[in-house]
Amino acid sequence: MTNPPRPQGVRHGARGQARREEIVRAAMEVIAERGYRGASLAAVAEKVGLTQQGLLHYFPSKEDLLIAVLTMRDEWDSGERVIGEEPMTIAQAVGVVEANSHRAPIVRTFSALLGESVTEDHPAGPYFRDRYRLVRRDMAITLRRRWGDRLPSGLTPEEAAPLLVAIMDGLQFQWLHEPESVDMPASFRAFLRLIDPEAAA
Amino acid sequence: MTNPPRPQGVRHGARGQARREEIVRAAMEVIAERGYRGASLAAVAEKVGLTQQGLLHYFPSKEDLLIAVLTMRDEWDSGERVIGEEPMTIAQAVGVVEANSHRAPIVRTFSALLGESVTEDHPAGPYFRDRYRLVRRDMAITLRRRWGDRLPSGLTPEEAAPLLVAIMDGLQFQWLHEPESVDMPASFRAFLRLIDPEAAA
DNA sequence: CAAGCACTACCGGGCACTCGGTAGACGTGG
DNA sequence: CCACGTCTACCGAGTGCCCGGTAGTGCTTG
Asked: Is the CB of B41 under 7 A from strand C?
């Protein structure tokens, strides 16, 4: 990882960086509760014991805060992997789904953002478009490495990749709406059995 | 007073009903552009050549308007079928996906609403929860009628139903973000091949 | 003392919704 | 046939609230 460039404008010390992370986490919570549009800076500020204007010291605009949330997610769920370098394995994908099933608030945050992002000129629009592009490409690579140009079910990796991504997103919405009726990890594994009946994942 | 009045408040004539439909369509457009939270009554009113107050004459609150949008969708895509009576066939599902791929604005409207609906106390929350419940149940029935208790791939209808629903929702988000990179109907058919390699849809 | 940090005070605007009206269509009875 | 009351349709003005963002000021700490 290269040296993180100065955000812009104000420079922040070590203590400031910790505060920034605290703020981003609070922002994720508020977004989970009310969406990005419904999230007010004042509500985020209150969670970390600041006034709205104090918060604006760290993030000069609401959109900057959103970008920080999105960025943190990338650093987060990429875990050890360096983003855009080595795609995650199928086993790792199962792990992510499993982990998500214990982190409703975070899943809610990004599902809400995904939904909003399809509206016109939404600040998270480009993020999700680029992310989908990347994830589909990586997933196709992963599938090809494991099964070659034809999956057991006869699909090409390029056909299956968008389906895998769609399943993950789609299951999250059903699960968020009725957790007791949808077993997300089990459903995901069922889908993997669809791809390869032999695999134990 | 003793006389139980129409739903509440104002009664509307035939001309009024036409106006109401016009308003609901305009509301769908505005929601597609800015989400429910971002949609202002004034913007909807302007689209149909009314003031915001004139609009409130037809729908006493913003939430009432949302409910009308949701209701219209049910009447709409249920088409000939009576909702909750006869579940749609696989072929009909393919038809819906095909049709959706030519109706980006409507897909955008409901994808945006689905996203928002996972936030706390969102007025569309109960709608989507009930809808998912119903659609999963119906889909399981459809799958069982067609393939019995085990699909060719070995899954039970109850395991496959949430996956089918998830695929439809998930593909929509990818497609909305990059239509030229995602062939929604083709992907959906690919998924059906996953379920039954023999089937031609 | 300067930079980081957080505040008070303020602003312009948008929001859903209310109140109180007006204009026209329509049916009824004198 | 026309006055009258009622009903639908709509608008102008206003209310209270919340929003993101700006300006300026002072505390604290390395």
From this structure: yes
